[in-house]
Structure formats: structure tokens, C-alpha cells
Amino acid sequence: MLQIQHFVFNHIQVNTYILFEETKQALVIDPAFYYPEEITLFDKFVSDNELQIVEVVFTHPHSDHLAGGAHIIEKYNIIPRINSNSALLLQTMEQQADLIGFTNFIMPQFKFDLEEGETLKFGNYFLNVMYMPGHADGSVCLYNPDEKILFTGDVLFRSSIGRTDFPTGDYELLINNIKSRIFTLPEDVTVYPGHNNPTTVKFEKRFNPFFN
What we know:
Elements: E1 3-9, E2 14-20, E3 25-29, H1 36-48, E4 52-57, H2 63-66, H3 69-76, H4 87-90, H5 93-99, E5 119-122, E6 125-131, E7 140-144, E8 149-153, E9 156-157, E10 160-161, H6 171-182, E11 190-193, E12 199-200, H7 201-207
Parallel strand pairs: 3-4, 8-11
Antiparallel strand pairs: 1-2, 2-3, 5-6, 6-7, 7-8, 9-10, 11-12
């Protein structure tokens, strides 16, 4: 049985997800822990549940989501994966991190191979990668049609959408991607966003003010 552990990390309140199942293999989405007590909490959960982290992915190249990347590499010997279109934004990420309060931000290494159509496997489960720019170049969503779960990063939130006033943001592109790629999924798909509470495709189609 697939289990989803949800943490809220750092002063920007980023959702970090650990997906794991009976084999104890785990996939981590947006390890955003930054403060020492957050790192301890994450490591304790992994240790207490005897998890083997086999995949670590970032939904997009913004520093509030990337904060835990360096620790992942040091502690678990895994290089996180990110979409190849993230490279340009990452060139100034340390400066951007400092501007929003990450004064001790450490830029991790990345594998630039989180691409459209790829399947991420962990144990008996998987997530399909969907390339979804608009909030930022390099944004992806992660979808499992069998479990009817979608991880949207900062593409789509409950009753909102990702900001488009940052570099490489594109409002029309974001709206069109959500309409054509998320709102065409089954309405009972649960959406796990990068900030705030989960929602469903049905709820967002009917009540999200950006589409009504």
C-alpha cells in the first residue's frame, strides 16, 4: 500500500512529500528542510521507518524548494533530479535564495534528467513526469493514474495558481497548461501542491477563481 508522508518546511512553508510502500523504497519530492530541527525531523522519519530513498526530485528551480538538496547528497548519497530547463534559473539561485531569507543556502548538485514522459519507479509504484512551465521554466508535475494522485509543485494550488511574476514566468502558458493537461485528468484525482492543502481536479475546475 502506498503511503504519503507530508512535511511543511522552512519559512516559506514548502510541502515536502515522502512516498513509500511495503518494500521500504521511497521517493522524495521537494526536500525543503532548512533549519536544523527540520533536518532532524526528516532524517528521523526516514530512519524510524527504515526507508531506502531511491529517488529525490525537485518540481522546479526555486530556492525555497531546493533548500534540502545538499543534505540529501551528503546524508543519503543521492543526487537530486530536476528538469533540464531549470539550468538558466539555477545560475542565480544562490543570490535569489539570499534575498528571501536563505542566508546559508548551499547549492546542491543536480541530475538534469527529469523529463516529460519519463517514469520514476520506487518499489511497486511509479510517477509519470509532466513538463509544465508557466510558473518557472523547469517546472514539472508528477502523476500516478492508478492511484489518482498528482503532485503539482507550484503549478496549481487549492483555489490558486503559481505566481508568474518571477523570471521565466508566463501567465498564459501556465493557464493553458493547467486547462489542457491537469483539468483533462479524472476529476477524482487528488492534487498535492507545493504549498498549502491538497485539493482535487474536480474542485479546482469548479471553484478555482483563475478559471471561473
